[in-house]
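User: For my dataset I need records formatted as: sequence, then structure tokens, nothing else. Please produce one.
Assistant:
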Amino acid sequence: MHYFLLAVLFGFTGCSGGPGNDELAAFLREGHREVDAILILDGVEITKTEEVGDPPVLNVEFMVNEKSKVDMFNPISMEEAYQEYQYSPEKYKDALKRLNGLREPERSDTAQKQPPQENISRVYRKTVSKGDEIKWTGTVTAEDKDGKWIFSGREGKPDESKITPNTVSRDQVPESAVVLDGTTKNKLTELIDQQKQFVQDVDAAEKQMEARLKREHAFLLKTIQSDTAWQALVPAQSGPAEKLRVRFVHQEKDGEKIYVLFEDQTNPLLRATWVGDLKLTKAPAPNARTFGSSSKSPDGWIIDLAPADKDRDFPVSGLRRTIVITMTGEDQLTWMNQKGPIILTPDANAPALPDYETLQKKILAQIAPGQTWEGTIQYKGETSNNLRLTFMDLRDNGNYVRLLVEKPDDPFVVGIFEGTISTSPDHLYSWPIQLKTADKGIKVFGSKKILSLFGTGLYFVKLYLMFDAEGNMIGISRSAKSLSNELNLKIADKIDNLPASADRWKNALKAGARWTGTITRGEQPKEQISMTVAEVRENGRIYRLFFENPDNPHQFRYFSATLDESDGSVDNYALVIEARSPVAQQTRFGHRFTDGDIDLFGRGKANKNLFRLTPDGKELLCVTEAKELIRLSPDTAPASKPLDQESVAKLWKEACVKGSRWRGDLVNTKAKQTLEVQLDFISGVDELGNVDVEVSPVKQRKLRMPFKGKLELDDDNVNAFALRLKKAAKGIGDSAIFGKSASNGELYFRLSPDGSELIGMAGAPNKWEEFLDLKPLSEDSEKSSAASK
């Protein structure tokens, strides 16, 4: 504010014909009164005059010497103020950026030391001290009027930058301003000291954080590489805390992938593998909420885990789906991301586990095809049941496995499970064998209570198996809307060199093979039964076979059979048999409404019965639709002659030549009478299969009853009742063969497998009354028969 007033105080040097210094000084003193309080005018010197204009006037240049009576101050910028102390705030700004790069707790701890925001509004610097000389230069116009110099147009400026239009004395500086007057301490120096200290604090925090992260990484890496087992006490929603065992079972590439086994210390069936990695967390975002208080989440190196099986709820329901383990304090392993931190402590009582490669080889050896395991299955609230498991197939490095489950005390109860053997770390230590039922339920229910392990037909059953520290197999099964079941098994025998399942069937069902055994119908006494394979087609997919009661040739039936070779069925009830022939003497054990019984030797033909072959190939088992139980073992003596369609057709043609005679007994079950009869072929079999025969009592040869019919040698009949005849005349009495009625006058014959016997039935279909057993009659046998009578 003093710049203009000071500028008019200058005088001129003496010049010929011009004003003198005193005259100019007198003029300048007129305007100096306003600054007399701060400046002393020492002198004025005119330095140059020049005549200009018309009329002419003098342009006078001058210099003024003054002295300051007080200290003077100029406002400066913060940048200039920092320069006064040779300080740059850039390091502080860089420290603020580095603060945002810190992790917790270092960032929050350091943020609390951050200086307050810069609140200095103005800074003044002392530019003139009391007693300082100040030189000014200026110009003025001088005009001589009546011998007196009149001055006007004063202009001037100081020769130095100490004086500006904004220069003020000390009493004019605002109270809120910082004054740089040479003293050592002020608000600015305090701020600079605080900023310098903060830079040091950030430097120290960075070093502290780097050391912490290095310790965390080393500790966690050592943890995952060791075989130490840990114990975690997890608070339960009610009751005592649950004791979990935590094992780091496998890791790859220094923590790039980590596998952790969680198991309940009191129940090894409660177990699961979690997979994750050792990683550095992402630093929290620099927002106000994270500053000023430590975060509860770990910020550094962590072991970050998620369940390997997404549908598993172990280790404890109600916990978060991810698990974070880190180091807290001095080498303390802590499970962090729950309602509260869970401290992990070493578990000295944990049994040792084999290393990954050793366990891989051991499991693969214990599940080789043919290996059996025996033990029990326990249903909650029920008594245990015996169980046998047989591994039937293992291929594609464990990507496919098939398991047969049987009840040893009820071999008709079986189930098939398919799945995988996982030798990867994801499941090797928890549930390496993961299976489910081949279909939603078994195909055939056994004679006793069915195991819920096999399902109800509505839902698949999942079966998880693993091996405990003692080498026993334990497992658990689960199904929708049903309780889980627990399995405990020990290793048992092994079927060496177990053939592929389809090959076992083909070995068992070769053409001519005979199987003998028993058929049980409820509480009735067991009866003998045999099965003979007549023919094999389509490389073992289609079979023609027949069943008969060795003690009753009139309980005989021919069947076609189809083998289901699919993976999920071939070890189950895979052989489907369908009746192709009627039965002479039917059984009446099971019934289906009014359309006839569904027994194996029943009159119904729509029913299908299923057989299974035991893993050792030594037994065939069947539960018929009538709940008859059939158990067959291989007979060492095969069929004496080929039984394929072509061979048996040849036997038939040899038996039915013109003039051939057959003799034997006719039994009438209605009258409970037996009669010796003879069958004579009046004609041979023509090209269309037509044939004529006569049946007569041996003692009344004149009572001949003619029959006409056909020899039907197609698939459904050649091994069964191929000779089908109808009565061609009326007789007397009620006999089906010799009586007067034509409605029951049908006569069917089958040829015994060796071709030595004609076995027949007479009456109406499914209402057979008379049964015949005839053998070929030769001259010698006829003479012998006549002599005996």
